Amino acid sequence: MKHTPTTVDSNVIQAVNEALQRFASNHHGKNASYIPYLADVPSHLFGISIMFCDGSHAEAGDTGYAFAIESISKVFTLAHVLDEVGPQALRSKIGCDPTGEPFNSVVALELHKGRPLNPFVNAGAMATVSLIRADTAQARWDHIQATYNAFAGRDLTVNEEVYTSEANSNQHNRGIAWLLQSYGYMHAHPMEVCDVYTRQCSVAITCHDLVTMGVALANGGVNPLTGKRVVAAKNVAPILSEMTLNGLYDTTGDWYYKVGLPGKSGVGGGILAVVPGVCAIAAFAPPLDVAGNSVRGQLAAEYLSRTLNLSLLH
Ligand code: GLN
């Protein structure tokens, strides 16, 4: 069912504006530089959005700036694959446990005989892409694109500059893709999968898109703006489990301690938090901490969680 957005409470608008003001002058962290394009995105950009399950929302800052979705894409590809194969297959072929290592760790793969452990490290994300039932790279991509568009409620596009930058510098991910194949966890051609994965990371989204994509998860799998179901209701909890345990890589525990919500970050500077049944929070600020998570994005989410009493642990 399509909701008619109501007006957001003034305390929500105030909290979003306050979060922006408080943290805008925080200059900690650094843009990702291993993907050359990302190093050049203006570091001062900062946007915060919150959207409730009725579609009402409040935003502040650079919420219309299009940035690379990067690892947050892994959430939405997972949604599609869960709809195709179901949670049991996903758990046995990939898993739902932290690796305790950085998102692009080869050591983690070696330690677990090639099992990626979760779909949010690069290895697990590529294994997830390989599970999509498709005979060609184009068909694989079409599934991904249709899913992202349904979540966002509009047609998203790939930032070709990001894609080219990343495709020219993704030798490490290509290595991971071949390793996965050698261990039997890659279910399509490794180079096709790595390329489709690189393309999904290069999709351009705004903070407004991200919060819309996230609120569909808060809303039981239905995008409240279009009224369309974008993932089966039974697959929402598995997605939120993965976000709870693995959303911010090897510092997910720190995040959960402070924010108390399932989250997901990307090296493009985006970050998403989901409050089941209530709302989603999205933030965008390019400088990252050492684990690869937006510094200001985490602070904004923590502030909103605390101020609006959104933590699942309270
Ligand atoms: N495209 C990036 C990579 O594969 C995504 C990583 C991320 O956002 N953590 O390295």
UniProtKB/TrEMBL annotation:
Note the Pfam families from the entry: Glutaminase
Q: Does the keyword Acetylation apply?
A: yes
Q: Which Gene3D superfamilies match?
A: DD-peptidase/beta-lactamase superfamily
From the UniProt record, list the reaction(s) this protein catalyses: L-glutamine + H2O = L-glutamate + NH4(+)
Assigned keywords, A-Z:
Acetylation, Hydrolase
Top enzyme class? hydrolase
- InterPro entries documented for this protein: Beta-lactam/transpept-like, Glutaminase
The UniProt annotation places substrate binding at S71, N122, E166, N173, Y197, Y249, V267
Keyword Acetylation tagged:
yes
Output the GO biological process annotations, alphabetical, semicolon-separated: glutamate biosynthetic process; L-glutamine catabolic process
For this UniProt entry, which segments traverse the membrane? none
Q: Which GO terms describe its molecular function?
A: glutaminase activity
E.C. designation(s): 3.5.1.2
The entry assigns this protein to a family as follows: Belongs to the glutaminase family.
Q: NCBIfam families this protein is in?
A: Gln_ase, PRK12356.1
Self-association and partners: Homotetramer.
- Protein name per UniProt: Glutaminase
Please give the organism: Pseudomonas versuta
Q: What is the lineage of its organism?
A: Bacteria, Pseudomonadati, Pseudomonadota, Gammaproteobacteria, Pseudomonadales
